[in-house]
From TrEMBL:
Localization per Swiss-Prot or TrEMBL: Nucleus
Organism: Sinanodonta woodiana
Database matches in Gene3D superfamilies: RNA polymerase, RBP11-like subunit
Keyword annotations from UniProtKB, A to Z: DNA-directed RNA polymerase, Nucleus, Transcription
Residue stretches making up the DNA-directed RNA polymerase RBP11-like dimerisation domain: 24-95
GO CC annotations on file: DNA-directed RNA polymerase complex; nucleus
Region (Disordered): 101-120
CDD domains: RNAP_I_III_AC19
Family named by the database record: Belongs to the archaeal Rpo11/eukaryotic RPB11/RPC19 RNA polymerase subunit family.
Name of the protein: DNA-directed RNA polymerases I and III subunit RPAC2
Superkingdom of the source species: Eukaryota
PANTHER family the record matches: DNA-DIRECTED RNA POLYMERASE I,II,III, DNA-DIRECTED RNA POLYMERASES I AND III SUBUNIT RPAC2
Pfam family, one: RNA_pol_L_2
């Protein structure tokens, strides 16, 4: 099995059946279960996907192998869509977190108005 570098951190693993674009294994370098599990979840929600799984070849290796099989769509396109969708989810989480932190800080800053209503 050989691999073709796509970027510095992503390779396309080559097997004997390179004609079938619906079935590919991608190697992500410098990644672990954090990306693997999130990306697998997002990709599996795509109705064009038959199978998506990932593995960490060895605990001392800082890489994951991600396998995608589709019902006809090229696996590389499914990976691109999955990465874009995951990026959108992460952006939404970050925006929600930052907004909540701003709200919390504005309510709890030393200059914020104190609640002076009598509860007794």
């Amino acid at each position: 099995m050989t691999s073709t570098p796509v970027t510095k951190n992503l390779e396309l693993s080559s097997t004997g059946s390179d004609e079938d674009e619906t079935c590919r294994t991608f190697i992500f370098r410098n990644e672990d279960h954090t990306l693997g599990n999130a990306l697998r979840y997002i990709i599996m929600r795509n109705p064009d996907v038959q199978f998506c799984g990932y593995s960490v070849p060895h605990p001392s290796e800082n890489k994951i192998n991600c396998r995608i099989q589709t019902f006809g769509v090229p696996a590389t396109e499914v990976l691109k869509k999955g990465l874009k969708d995951l990026n959108k989810v992460c952006s939404h989480v970050l925006q929600t977190f930052e907004s909540s932190m701003r709200d919390y800080r504005s309510r709890n800053s030393p200059g914020a108005a104190m609640d002076t209503t009598d509860q007794g």
